[in-house]
Amino acid sequence: MSELARVGLRAMTPARVGLGRVGDSLDTTAVLDFAMAHAMARDAVHAALSVPSMLAGLGSLGLEAVAVKSAAGDRSAYLKRPDLGRRLASGVRLEAARGEAPRLTVIVADGLSALAADRHALPLLEALLPLLGRFSLTVTVVAEQARVALGDEIGALLGSDLTVMLIGERPGLSSPDSLGAYLTWEPRVGKTDAERNCVSNIRVGGLEYEAAAGRIAFLCEGALRLGLTGTALKDGSDRLLGRG
């Protein structure tokens, strides 16, 4: 492949394609770039969520917020025991919401990249909140050492009709700060992934905030209309918004 063709290919994707070679090996620049990306991904996995800053930011958006932790006592336990990240720590108390139905709970969680939640949850919510007018928002929950399924227990305790969990996704070598939004109708312990919808790759350089907010709001309306989330709820937001 010519150098001109490699440059054109690299301009089309952040993936590592068309890399230069020196003999049988990659050139030094490509090796160092890979090492840097790998280090950033590892750092993202082990980073801690800035809970005080997140609570303050949610308050600035007019949201009442509380912080909780999963049963995983620390990051090591969280990574070794995914099951502990799916249940609340003992002693956590959440009071059932008193707002009128339909009740929606927003959960901001560290997941596998606290960096993603720290960077993108607040600007995404700023774009999303004006689109949720048909829902009564419960208290917003900030969850540490959390897996997606932790939202099921949180939503059940709060009496939510729908949860939207904003959680850091598994870091990639080109995206250590990718945020995912998981929607679950009638959350309860034991829900499966087939009963959720996901909007992923929310980040600068990925799915931008306004576009992500539009998709999430579209799915929220669909969940309310059909009384479900998951495989039976399709994302037609692109067609609705004239993108498809």
What share of residues are in beta strands?
A: 15-25%
Which structural class do you get from the secondary structure elements?
alpha/beta
Number of E-state strands: 9
Shape: globular
Structural Rg: 20 Å
CATH homology group: Ethanolamine ammonia-lyase light chain (EutC)
Helix content: 25-40%
Uncertain segments are: none
Between the first and last Cα atoms, what is the distance in angstroms?
A: 34 Å
The ordered H/E elements are: HEEHHEHEHEEHEEEHH
Query: Would you tell me which CATH topology applies?
Result: Rossmann fold
Report the average pLDDT across residues.
Answer: 89
Domain count, please report it. 1
Key phrases:
single chain, Rossmann fold, alpha/beta, 244 residues, 9 strands, two-stranded antiparallel sheet, seven-stranded mixed beta sheet
Q: How would you describe the overall organization of this protein?
A:
- The radius of gyration is 20 Å and the shape is globular.
- Strands 3, 4, 5, 6, 7, 8 and 9 form a seven-stranded mixed sheet that branches. Strands 1-2 form a two-stranded antiparallel ribbon.
- It has one domain (51-240): Rossmann fold (3-Layer(aba) Sandwich), CATH 3.40.50.11240.
- The protein is α/β, with parallel strands linked by helices and 244 residues long.
- The chain contains eight helices and nine strands.
Give the topology, please:
Blueprint: H1 3-10, E1 21-22, E2 25-26, H2 28-46, H3 51-60, E3 65-69, H4 75-80, E4 103-109, H5 114-128, E5 136-137, E6 140-144, H6 150-158, E7 162-168, E8 179-185, E9 196-202, H7 209-226, H8 237-240
Parallel strand pairs: 3-6, 4-5, 4-6, 4-7
Antiparallel strand pairs: 1-2, 7-8, 8-9
